[in-house]
Records
---
Amino acid sequence: MRIDILTLFPEMFQGVLGSSILKRAAEPVLIKSDSTTRPPVCSYHVHNIRDHTTNRHQKVDQPPYGGGPGMVIQPQPVYDCVQAVEAEQSDTSARRIHLTPTGKPWTQKLAEEYAQLPRILLIAGHYEAIDQRAIDTLQPDEISIGDYVLSGGELAAMVLIDSIVRLIPGALGHDESAHNDSFSEGAKRLLDHPHYTRPAVWNDMPVPDVLMSGNHAHIEKWREEQSLKITQQNRPDLLNH
Ligand code: 6GU
């Protein structure tokens, strides 16, 4: 998957894309059996919207028509940046995504859908908003990551990238399957059960007996019960669907 990111703050992405699973997903995959490599499962391309301004001071924002607080990003640099970026590797068409608190809620189900695509292009606004005419012209999917307001779409874009990339086959190692994650199909879209590791007793607290029993049917039943209990406690809304 090719991932293009359009932002006024490219530096915000360096740490996140350069660490942990997102970093590894953009590196060639070493095949143990014959020591050959496969191409990375994804690539990241971060673009500065400011590079597409046409004015001398590279200004991208102006006060809103009709008045009100904050600044609005002008449509031209956003539109031109999208056109320039999509012209790179133009044989692969990109799903456009605009990160905005007024978008549709992001879910694991959408992450699973997007993980199948060959190319996504994320537009992260900042300040009050992007001029609506750029949105109307580009017709991106509009996505929000929750009912709170961030200073810009960048953190939300990173959330989308992380939740999508870990679902691309080959992005996670063999021991890190996403199949039973919270909200996944394998977890029946419920919250995950609690987890335990060594030592068997810590601060006078033993690991639940069933997990030491070796009885996989019992273990699975216990985990399903725990999932249901934690979901009832913390997210009863998930049970009414
Ligand atoms: Cl996608 N952007 C901003 N600025 N705030 C948000 C958001 C996105 N999702 C939730 N809050």
---
Amino acid sequence: MVDSYLVLYCGTDPELTAEELRARCARLQHAMAAGYAAALRERTRVEQEAIARSALSARSAAEIALHATESRFRAVFDGAAIGIGIADLDGRLVEINDTMTRMFGGVEAHVRSRNVSEWVHPEDGPHVWRLYEELVRGEREQYRVEKPYYRGDGTVLWTNLTVSLLRDAQGHPQYQLALMEDITERRLLHLRLRYEATHDALTGLPNRTLFFERLEKALAPAGEDGRFGLCYLDLDGFKAINDSLGHSTGDRLLVEVADRLQACATGPGEMVARLGGDEFVALTTSTGGERDATALADRILAALATPVGVDGRELTVRGSLGVVEGPAGERTAAEVLRSADITMYRAKSAGGNRFELADPEADARAITRHGLTTALPTALERGEFFIEYQPLVHLDDGTVHGAEALVRWSHPQHGVLGPDRFIPLAEDTGLIVPLGRWVLQEAVRQARSWQLDDPTTGTPLRINVNLSPTQLHHPRLVADTVDVLERSGLAPGALCLEVTESALIGADEDLLKPLRQLAEMGVDIALDDFGTGYSNLANLRRLPVSVLKLDRSFTRGMQQHPVDPVDLKIVEGIVSLAHSLELAVTVEGVETAAQAERLRELGCDTAQGWYYARPGAPDRIHSLVLADAV
Ligand code: C2E
Ligand code: MG
Ligand code: MG
């Protein structure tokens, strides 16, 4: 009944895997067994109290020879479902009932032959015999313990034992009355359920629950200098094995890995657990320092080095390990595990088949990085991104030529984040494609609305949008751009896509083709951050670019007095080369009037920088344009 109820209950969530289901059932069984045991204990307690009352009145009955009471006591004594024994204060048994005899294996002589004080068992709690001594000395009236005994055949009987002191009419201690409830079965059930709830069904290793218990114990503030070492292992490429060779092969591989890991950590204070999937941990509390923990990691890597034979195949297993070692009492189990997890990922991104040692700085970076990465997709859905525009200005007359769209993230916790904080993450996760498309759409729409607001200006305001390398490789780049332009009504000539120099280093014709198509339509392509990569200047000719954006590092040199003549020569050289290739030159990072003047003299066409305006809201650009027109 209980089982079918559990199956029904556990089976309601279709998201659960068979393994999670088993674990959940085990937890549930555990909880139910605990509740059942508590109810049983309560019933026994009531019964025991009734017996103790009868025994007490029987004692006075013996003294005043009231046979009726004596016989009532007899009836309870003999018929009780629990074992009852009466012994004197020296531990000699005076009376035992049949139930007690049965509990001990059915041979009364075996029970009677021994003094109570001889019934010791190695698993006796340390307090058991102290309580006994206190009772027989008359210092306490009663105690209650869980106590094991050996039966006649050597098997173990577990009992819930209540011992009460019986006093004579003058109040002197006279007998001790023991009431015993056999809890052997319940205890076995409890142990089995606990085993199931704390062990992994596939490999038999301790599971996450037990591992956390041990880790918490290992991390508890220790009196002396307790330390712990943790190796967090994730197999490299396990998913591929599972997907290509099937789950049963994957399972057998995991079992073999579990066996090998267990053989690596057999010392005292060492344990291996499976956290789930292909993630394992080895914990040691017998470490003297980092060297011991890394030695454990080395043993694990060595254990994985030999291929595993499954179904006649030799499977190569590799793993990445994150190792955390440190003093107890400083961090919580969750913190340690997170650090190990982050460190394991470092090992993985360094190529796998290795271990890395945790480092607090790398952890902190990874934690924010991780947090931002996971928040990125919803941020786009929730409209947390916005664009600031920074004007591009004609150096000759100072009029606004256009604006560069620079994306920002208004993060609910961290405030406004600049693109350097999240564009690389968006690149790694591929989110840059939808994000970049949104920026393009929004910026183009904005540019079109500037034009519509001010149809009198001669040349329409241009808009620069940054493209990241992943976007360049995206098959829909051209189609999406055309679509965005058509929907907004902006002429292709008013759009400039900025591509970094480094993204085009070594670009082959396939990569350049979409850019070439866009350029043929009239879209400008700018080479952003020019001068920071290692471009071969001669190479410029074959790129479909029409603008060079000179990196800020060149303009920075021009803030100094006197300006380094070599810097001047370089910029002059680049400008003349660019012009000879019919490329316009934009300079970034212009912060002073002196810089602007110098760059104008050198022949640069347009400039961008704080001297003119910091990136800001779109209406600021509009007012700058209107100011030009006056
Ligand atoms: P970038 O395209 O080279 O953009 C110019 C950066 O220089 C901007 O930083 C801008 O705020 C900053 N800047 C402008 N004038 C000055 C100045 O006078 N002095 C100094 N010190 N800095 C100045 P921001 O906005 O932090 O952008 C950083 C980079 O993020 C951009 O460099 C660009 O590569 C990337 N980015 C920005 N928006 C996007 C986007 O929508 N998509 C992609 N893929 N990348 C973007
Ligand atoms: Mg740019
Ligand atoms: Mg730039």
